[in-house]
Design goal:
Layout: E1 3-12, H1 20-27, E2 36-43, H2 53-69, H3 73-79, E3 81-86, E4 95-104, E5 113-120, H4 132-149, E6 157-165, H5 169-177, H6 187-205, E7 230-235, E8 242-249, E9 252-253, E10 256-263, H7 269-277, H8 283-287, E11 295-302, E12 309-310, E13 313-314, H9 325-341, E14 347-350, E15 361-368
Parallel strand pairs: 1-9, 2-3, 6-7, 11-14
Antiparallel strand pairs: 1-4, 2-4, 5-8, 6-8, 10-15, 11-15, 12-13
Helix pairs in contact: 2-3, 4-6
């Protein structure tokens, strides 16, 4: 059996086209481009339909990797999961996390270590977004990515990041010309439908819900159905679902581990601390800053509570006509998580439909294991 070691490198970005950090890692010999399996980035766009910073960053990374690997950009995008999430409001800092997976001779240490797997669905037609087909195809791809990671038990899966498509006016018209109706004609609303269906696909793929619950009628409707590890982000830059499964595996080597918890709402400090505790930190070491050197990155979802309340008190995120609600949520959760992590280069994604309970969302921490630190 092949033994893999997964490492990740967090690089700062001065703009969505700045990949100097990647070039530095390759130039210094710290990573081999052929070992890169995923790049998760936070870009400083608005996170909406017209946030082209995501596409700009994706294409820039793809072009660089194509040159390194001697292949086309399309070939890069079929083998590497390029997941760019727009929106670095508040204290969040634009950055990218590069995941590398390489074969090693043997497993040096005991215990389960960080593993990562990648899969892609087929391209979806516009009329398939937010429907049963997206749910089912995503569930199957999640299982494939889990197998690719070498994770045998669903309880060892701690975060599933998905980049999914959205609808534009052009895509809606394309469906109409072919005699099909889309789930919505509103481009912004389509992001929520695509994220929600993808999240239910994760829940189905990991057995968190059964097929009777994983119905398109539940999308943006039945909030009791959700995944506790799904993080889905919609963008204009792709037509398929790109899936990244992260977890721990007994067959993985290296020093790194991942754990997670679920935030019940946008101010759930306890949930954040529980995520850090899942990888060996107690509250005192986290809040004193002692744990900072071991933390490799934090990944979380942000969501404006759909009923307009947080712990019984009214919030105005859903009613603000000047700033979109997902931007409010990213800023709020980003500030909370950054204060614990000790830096703003954390991956906070907005729009958590069926990703954790309403108003909350999953949070995962990747860190050096205590035994190896």
């Amino acid at each position: 059996m092949t033994v893999h070691q997964v490492d990740l490198f967090r690089i700062q970005m001065r703009g969505p086209g700045d990949i100097s950090g990647l070039h530095a890692l390759v130039g210094e010999g710290r990573i081999d481009p052929k070992d890169i399996v995923a790049i998760l980035g936070k870009t400083e766009g608005n996170g909406g339909v017209n946030d082209f910073t995501r596409e700009y960053a994706s294409k820039t990374f793809a072009a660089a990797l194509a040159e390194y690997l001697g292949c086309t950009r399309d070939e890069v995008e079929s083998r590497v999961a390029l997941v760019m999430s727009g929106g670095t409001e508040g204290v969040l800092s634009p950055h990218a996390t590069v995941f590398v997976r390489r074969a090693v001779a043997k497993k040096e240490s005991g215990g389960k270590r960080l593993a990562i797997g990648v899969a892609h669905t087929r391209d979806f037609l516009p009329e398939e977004l937010g429907t049963q087909k997206q749910i089912a195809e995503t569930a199957q791809a999640v299982r494939e990515a889990m197998s690719d990671a070498g994770i045998a038990d669903v309880s060892d899966v701690h975060f599933v990041q998905i980049k999914c498509p959205l609808l534009t006016a052009e895509r809606v018209e394309d469906a109409k010309r072919r005699g099909h109706a889309t789930v919505t004609a509103d481009s912004y609303a389509s992001m929520a439908y695509s994220r929600g269906a993808s999240a239910l696909g994760v829940a189905l793929g990991l057995g968190e819900i059964d097929e009777a619950a994983a119905l398109e009628s539940a999308v943006l409707s039945n909030w009791s159905h959700y995944s506790s590890v799904a993080s889905t982000s919609a963008g204009v830059e792709l037509f398929c679902n790109a899936i990244v499964v992260m977890g721990n595996s007994a067959s993985a080597a290296g020093d790194n581990i991942i754990g997670h918890s679920v935030m019940r709402d946008a101010i759930d400090l306890r949930g954040v601390l529980e995520a850090f505790h899942s990888v060996g930190f107690d509250a005192a070491s986290v809040l004193s800053g002692e744990a900072g050197a071991r933390v490799l990155n934090v990944f979380a979802k942000a969501e404006p509570s759909p009923e307009g309340l947080i712990r019984g008190m009214r919030h105005t995120m859903l009613d603000d006509s000047d700033i979109n609600c997902t931007r409010h949520a990213r800023a709020a959760v980003g500030g909370l998580v950054a204060s614990v992590a000790g830096c703003g280069s954390v991956y906070i994604s907005g729009g958590a439909e069926h990703q954790g309970p309403p108003g909350g969302g999953p949070i995962a921490v990747i860190a050096k294991s205590i035994a190896m630190s």
